[in-house]
Design a protein that fits this description.
- The protein is of the alpha+beta class.
- The chain has one domain: Sufe protein. Chain: A, CATH 3.90.1010.
- Helix content is 56%, strand content 16%.
- It is built from six helices and three strands.
- A three-stranded antiparallel sheet has the order 1-2-3.
- The longest helix is centred in the first third of the chain and has 27 residues.
- The radius of gyration is 19 Å and the shape is elongated.
- The N and C termini lie far apart (72 Å).
- The structure holds FE2/S2 (inorganic) cluster.
- FE2/S2 (inorganic) cluster binds next to helix 3 and helix 6.
- The site of FE2/S2 (inorganic) cluster has 9 residues, from helix 3 and helix 6.
């Protein structure tokens, strides 16, 4: 039964580690950022989207945004990223914000709006919101470019 005792110690260690990580995250990020990161909405690539944007940020991470449209309204938006936790939270919140609004309204969303919707981001993560908003704008610009073609 010594083996079971070891497993319990290991489990306790993992639980303690998780507690410390969550505590550190809470000190840095708002409850909304943590919620969107642990339970991201609209995560995944979309097959045959009406519009797609992909931006490679200066931090080395990439964000992709996919849009399904009904005329000029966004019916569905999804995202994919290889970036940090705050980027996942940004993608989740931004795709939720743009669902069921017009392309024009979506193009007016600024990084500050996304940051406010997440109840703030730490200074070092502000560029993650900029990356998400740039990717959305890229998707909208690509759609307009194709629309004109
Ligand atoms: Fe690259 Fe957050 S660190 S997007």
């Amino acid at each position: 039964m010594e083996h079971q005792g070891e497993a319990t110690d290991f489990e306790r260690m993992v639980t303690e580690l998780q507690r410390q990580i969550i505590e550190q995250a809470r000190a840095l990020y708002s409850a909304k950022v943590i919620e969107e990161f642990y339970n991201p909405k609209n995560l995944g690539r979309m097959s045959a989207p009406d519009a797609r944007g992909s931006v490679h940020g200066w931090c080395g991470d990439t964000m992709e945004i996919y849009l399904r449209l009904n005329e000029d309204r966004i019916k569905e938006a999804t995202f994919m990223t290889d970036g940090c936790g705050p980027t996942v939270a940004c993608g989740s919140m931004l795709t939720t914000m743009v669902t069921e609004i017009s392309l024009e309204e979506a193009s007016e969303i600024k990084p500050e709006d996304l940051i406010a919707a997440l109840d703030g981001l730490p200074e070092e993560s502000l560029h993650c919101a900029e990356l998400a908003v740039s990717t959305l704008r890229e998707a909208i610009a690509n759609w307009h470019a194709e629309d004109r073609a």
